[in-house]
Amino acid sequence: MTASMHPAPAPTAVVADDERLMRDQIVARLKEAWPELLIVGEASNGREAIDLVRSLDPDIVFLDISMPGTDGIEAATALAGQAHVVFVTAHDEYAIRAFEQGAVDYVLKPADPARLALTCQRLRERLTQAPDPMHDLLAQLSQRLGATGLEPREYLRWVQASVGATLRMIPTSEILFFRAEDKYTRVQTQRFEALIRKPIKELIDELDPKEFWQIHRSTVVRVDAVEQVSRNLRGNQVVHVKGSDEKLEVSRSFNHLFKQM
User: Fold this and answer.
1) What is the mean pLDDT of the chain?
2) How, if at all, do strands 247-249 and 237-241 pair?
3) Distance CA 95, CA 184 (A)
4) Which of 150, 187, 194, 245 is in Cβ range 3.0-4.6 Å of 163 for a Cys bridge?
5) Does pTM surpass 0.85?
């Protein structure tokens, strides 16, 4: 006997922005990037957003940061664990504060269609991940007891780095590898390289070990950016990274990461 198949319910979202025209633009571009997404409510301030999320229980809330009364940061704090949060704002100086609240992503206004499409893809991946019972339990305990020490560990999702005279927020999902160079650490993506002052020793403690591996005392590579591993003339393992011609040598103490070689 074949079990009946039920289609998964459509994902739902609430959009909050105090500017009506900007709210309409975000809703329109979301419909283009993610036609299946249902916008179940719109709010003009943080207080309305909190009430809508608690009453409608959407999967996602898109929050403007700068709103009168209760702002987006305060709303995200109040809604911790109740919906996936994406901040949409014209002020990029809020980025670090935004991600301290556990946001899935951060989009600058006016929302670029390609950038919003990437955000929607990340949200799809989040929504299809199997729930972690321990994560849910810890979130509930944290909300009830205010016990911040019980919250699951948050790893770096963005890196603030210098590209020439410009300061950029780089998602860790776009970083191929980190490499120590003199007094700086180089951040390499497919499109550009940047510099940060944080040493590799400190950086490795802040990165998700499921996503990043240290392969040398001076090198950390994103696991899914590894294309292949070969051996050089000295017999040492060398990592080839997608989107880069650079070859990253693996030190002997990290040879165990690539056991098949």
Assistant:
1) 82
2) antiparallel
3) 22
4) 194
5) no
